[in-house]
Amino acid sequence: ASFARIAEVEERVKAFLTLDEEGARRTAAELDKQLAAGGERGLLFGLPAGLKDNIVTEGLRTTCASRFLGNYDPIYDATVVRKLKDAQSVTIGKLNMDEFAMGGSNENSAFHATRNPWNADYVPGGSSGGSAAAVAAGEVYFALGSDTGGSIRQPAAYCGVVGLKPTYGLVSRFGLVAFASSLDQIGPLTKNVEDAAYVLQAIAGHDERDSTSAQVRIPDYISALTGDVKGLRIAVPKEYFGEGVSSEVKSAVQASLKVFESLGATWEEVSLPHTEYAVATYYLLASSEASSNLARYDGVRYGVRSSDADNLLDVYLNSRSEGFGPEVKRRIMLGTYALSSGYYDAYYLKAQKVRTLIKRDFDQVFENYDLILSPTAPTTAFKLGEQVDDPLTMYLNDILTIPVNLAGIPAISIPCGLASNGLPIGLQLMGRAFDESTVLRAAHAFE
Ligand code: GLN
């Protein structure tokens, strides 16, 4: 059914970079055989899944939508891929993204732009735009994405699906190609909240192969979906409704508060005073970490090597010049500058300190409230090509999603209505660290 649907819509949506029909049919046949032999059904038995192309898959091409990794066939599976196999889902293929997860529209893919299934003139968001579009178009049952500054939640909002960024450390990053290691987190994109709980259940948990993986007890996320939010205290930060947030987005999100009220929850306006520094802090820290992480692409160890080099330095220079796209180069240069001696204290160290202040804002609010509610993105999806030459405007789209990554807390985006352009609007619910249960429970009750 998944491949039939792909045959129908993929030409228009262009969500995939690699399809693995043979592998998927082999896995499905194997699962049938195990079941016939009396085996038990796994948690995600037979469900067709798509994976963002920065999650490594043994023997299956993994490009990060970069020319640099255009020929890269990993020799191992990411921990999440192993866990999905244990849960018996079926991998259909690898999904498009902004190159190395840098971007918010999918237009930074080195290969092609994915389209928003609601209207093909519009972007699906990013960087996990292929993941969101594939779920929205019904090509896969669920997808995995990664979220460094909003890359699961923003495309989920633009495509009218559910996207969950788990607490930093809840899901293993082993086998996720690193962008900004202190911010990156893998999570599900699904059609509804219950599905998100199932997928999270399958992929969460400690992994000794990720040194930042948390040693926490994994609760039963599925039984947390009681439908009951009576007495839940919701904080609504005034900074998240400021300039740049469209009036239609504001009113859809405000209307959602009425729904929560009718379900017996209460809400109050609060302040997260350091919000205005989040974008600058994020783009310094994420670029700094990226410049360090991407130093491994030297034309020797991974991917494509320039054919136009006759000494070692030229191998590095030409491979990197040819292999990386403009946005990736921009981040590497910004990050290298911010980390260089003489500037480190003024930029990187300062940004780390502001990160702490942003985290403290959240800690204070969570002393008195269970959840924080806001829009996921300031606007609905924009048109292809509309912002592509304007990186600063593109960066500002992330203002409502970035603070969550800086603080390491979980957040979900769920659909909360349609704008007059016919495109979906996303509602964001943020929770305490490792309290995905409350986030999921509230999202599920709202839905
Ligand atoms: N749009 C943000 C960026 O370009 C977020 C990306 C992400 O979460 N991977 O960095």
From TrEMBL:
Catalytic reaction(s) noted: L-glutamyl-tRNA(Gln) + L-glutamine + ATP + H2O = L-glutaminyl-tRNA(Gln) + L-glutamate + ADP + phosphate + H(+)
Pfam families xref list: Amidase
EC number of the protein: 6.3.5.7
Active site: K52 (charge relay system), S127 (charge relay system), S151 (acyl-ester intermediate)
InterPro entries per the UniProt record, alphabetical: Amidase (IPR000120), Amidase_CS (IPR020556), Amidase_dom (IPR023631), AS_sf (IPR036928), GatA (IPR004412)
Principal EC category: ligase
Gene3D superfamilies in the cross-refs: Amidase signature (AS) domain
Keywords: ATP-binding, Ligase, Nucleotide-binding, Protein biosynthesis
Amidase domain ranges (all copies): 1-440
Protein family according to the UniProt entry: Belongs to the amidase family. GatA subfamily.
Job of this protein: Allows the formation of correctly charged Gln-tRNA(Gln) through the transamidation of misacylated Glu-tRNA(Gln) in organisms which lack glutaminyl-tRNA synthetase. The reaction takes place in the presence of glutamine and ATP through an activated gamma-phospho-Glu-tRNA(Gln).
Subunit (UniProt): Heterotrimer of A, B and C subunits.
PANTHER family: GLUTAMYL-TRNA(GLN) AMIDOTRANSFERASE SUBUNIT A (PTHR11895:SF151), TRANSAMIDASE (PTHR11895)
Record's protein name: Glutamyl-tRNA(Gln) amidotransferase subunit A
